[in-house]
Specification:
The chain has about 150 residues and is α+β, with helices and mostly antiparallel strands. It contains 2 helices and 6 strands, in the order βββαβββα. It has helices at about 60-70, 125-145, and strands at about 10, 15-25, 30-35, 85-90, 90-100, 100-110. It has a 3-stranded antiparallel β-sheet, with helices on one face. β5 (about 90-100) and β6 (about 100-110) form a beta hairpin. The protein is flat, with a radius of gyration of 16 Å.
């Protein structure tokens, strides 16, 4: 797996379906997916790779496979918009949350679902996104210089 295709991710019934290229066969991409859950580690599908154990030939195909699996095996029905404020910057997934007027974020690097967010609160979504962007830009410049 080179990287998770966050830009192709789809929020569905409290989960975020994140496709990635699993393998290549005769120059064709074989797709799989990973899941994030709005309820985090309370879900048996949190950070699980392809619980349906079926692979797809296109991003659209693997998204449909994941949706069908979740329809059959749903754990909860989420009314939250947890994945609504998500951004992709430099191939990183940023999910911004808001609780009682305080903003926080989850940050997933391009190649894993390990949350690397700093424990920091912000007064606005814009402030949060700006701070993250500055940090990623600084990291990018350091990596280019080395």
């Amino acid at each position: 797996m080179k990287r998770l295709l966050y830009e192709e991710s789809v929020a569905y019934k409290g989960y975020l379906i994140i496709p990635f290229v699993f393998s290549k066969l005769n120059n064709y991409d074989i797709y799989s997916y990973k899941l994030l859950s709005a309820i985090g580690n309370k879900s048996k599908f949190q950070k699980v790779e392809n619980p349906a154990a079926i692979y797809g030939s296109t991003v659209e195909n693997i998204i449909e496979i994941a949706k069908e699996h979740l329809d059959i095996n749903f754990e909860f029905i989420s009314q939250t918009g947890y994945f609504q404020s998500r951004y992709i910057y430099r191939h990183n997934l940023i999910i911004v949350g808001n609780e009682n007027g305080k903003y926080f974020y989850d940050h997933y690097p391009p190649d894993s679902l390990n949350n690397i967010a700093a424990p920091k609160l912000f007064t606005s979504e814009y402030e949060c996104i700006s701070w993250i962007g500055q940090g990623l830009d600084t990291l990018h410049m350091r990596l280019r210089a080395s």
